[in-house]
Specification:
147 residues; 6-stranded antiparallel β-sheet
Length: 147
């Protein structure tokens, strides 16, 4: 996840959050787990935006998180606000990636993260192909199909 040439315009999903006092650790900065929660909130927001959460409710087919990578670049402090930018990328048959950039109030990069998600049929307990409807929605959010 190189950040030297980071183009924030390629991250169409934006989620703003408030830093809470309870997220501060004994070192005086926001705990890394709290940053992962910001990313999780953004992930859920993105899945709601494309209709995956409603699709899961109706069909028992939904996204499952299978991998998380995070590179912490800078400490984050209370009080403050944080913005998480996201982009869905690397769309495959049953999986896709979500890339995140976590920014502090000054717009500086706090963390870079990446998730791998798999579409899963919970009733049959197997992964399944991403429907064309969602593929088009993901592509509108920056996804590129990968063979």
């Amino acid at each position: 996840m190189p950040h030297r040439e980071l183009n924030l315009d390629t991250y169409p999903i934006r989620f703003d959050l408030r830093v809470d006092w309870a997220e501060v650790d004994s070192y005086g900065h926001v705990n890394n787990l709290a940053i992962q929660r910001y990313i999780q909130s953004t992930r859920v927001h993105a899945m709601e935006e494309v209709g995956m959460m409603q699709h899961h409710k109706e069909t028992a087919i939904g996204p499952v998180l299978v991998s998380v990578t995070c590179h912490f670049r800078k400490q984050l402090y209370y009080p403050g606000k944080v913005t998480v930018l996201a982009r869905i990328d690397h769309l495959k048959t049953t999986s896709f990636q979500i890339h995140y950039v976590v920014l502090d109030e000054a717009g500086e990069v706090v963390a870079l993260s990446q998730d791998v998600m798999v579409l899963f049929d919970f009733s049959r307990e197997v992964k399944c192909a991403i429907p064309e409807t969602f593929r088009r929605r993901f592509e509108r959010l920056g996804a590129t199909s990968q063979a």
